[in-house]
Amino acid sequence: MAFPSYLVPNLWTLSLLTLLAASVQSNLIVFDDDPLQPVTQDETASVGGMVTLTCRVAASDNSSLQWSNTAQQTLYFGEKRALRDNRIQLNRSTGTELSITIGNVQLSDEGEYTCSIFTMPVRTARATVTVLGVPDKPQISGYEDTVQEGGKVTLTCTSSGSKPPAKLRWYRNQEELTGRPDVVETNPDEATYTVISELTLTVGRSDDNTLIGCAVDHPSLSPGEKWTEQPIRVLFTPDVTIQPQNDLPREGEKFIIQCIGNGNPKPTSYVWQKKDGELPLMAKVDASFLLFEMLNKSDNGVYLCQADNGIGKMQGEYTLLVQDLTDDSNNLFPTSFYLPSFSPTSDSPSSSLSPDSFPTLMSTTSGSGSSASGSLPASSPPTIFSFSVPYPSDLTFPLLLPLLHPSLPLLSLPLLLLSMFYPPLFPTLSSLTFPCLPNAIPPPLTPSPPLLPPLFPLLLPALLLPLSLLPPPPTPSLPPQLPYG
After folding, report:
1. Fewest C-beta atoms under 10 Å: which of 63, 209, 331, 408?
2. Among 177, 216, 225, 212, residue whose Cα is nearest residue 196
3. pTM exceeds 0.70
4. All domains of the chain, ordered by start, with CATH?
């Protein structure tokens, strides 16, 4: 039976209205969650680790929960073990929860696990277990021997057993470097991967003893957990510096300079030269040392040292500028002592004693003590030597010189102490002269404030009284001048 053509649009309209009403009715219906529907979640574990599978329902109707593996083998039905696998253990079992653990997880444990509750109808839920293949410790190869400065070295880092493929990172002393893109290879016997990375470096002297590291980046590892390092040795020419023994070379002193060569290997040969001249005759070469037994201003100049370590030769230089000796007025003892060529007599009680009229008796070097030379004839009477005493004022001793008697050598010591303890009494004293004592070297003297000033008027006459009772000294006959040495 055919429908009239005018009725066709009405049928289409009726159909659309029916669908619209059904849609509105469905939107008005609210479906509550099924309290008996099991709920699970996906888990991830590393090879050798442990994973926990938990299945829950909101309400219980006394039906049992069940876990099945990827092959649909029942693992646990409620509290009852169904599969004899000691790695799988019951963790918790109640009317609304069933929880089990799988220990020593293997790659074969990966897959979908099913939780079921036997109601009418049976309700199920699935959980996916992902097993991570733990990568092996990386190995670095390609370095065989030392590399000369400016050369290239190519290192290869390899790590196997990762799943998913690991990422390799290069480091130089904790600074990340960029290597070639990783090469990933599949292991035929298991679903794991081998990752290979290469790094090419142009090395310099700063890379000597540098540690080149390769680290594995993988979800199964914490950062830096698996790491290996390869030290690099670089051969390079030495850097040369010349180090002086001290910063103030003085004329007459011993002086040493050292040639220091920092290279790999260490320098084995040193050549010393003086720029624009020959080495001084008093200079001695001892490998990396240049020794001056006694500095002279003629030693001034630029000294060159060439160090050779078999890889190359480098040269350093040092400018030597010899300084003058320090002034005696700043020292407790002078650099020279003088022995008079005559003894004072009654005819010349105030004879001028100047260094120019004395032969040298003793000389000292800074910080090294003193040595004496020369001797007196056995018939010589007690003689006088002079030394400088550091004191703030300009001191001279012309007034006390007539008071000293050659027969009383110990008398000068109290006077010396008085001059130090009572400086106001000797306002013009700069040098003290007293009889020469055997091996007599005065101790260091330090200016002090006057001690017991009221006692001095009583002490001074007691010291001077013996002088009036002594006969005048005999007049000796001495040669005109003592020979040197």
Report:
1. 209
2. 216
3. no
4. 43-132 (2.60.40.10), 139-232 (2.60.40.10), 237-320 (2.60.40.10), 328-453 (no CATH)
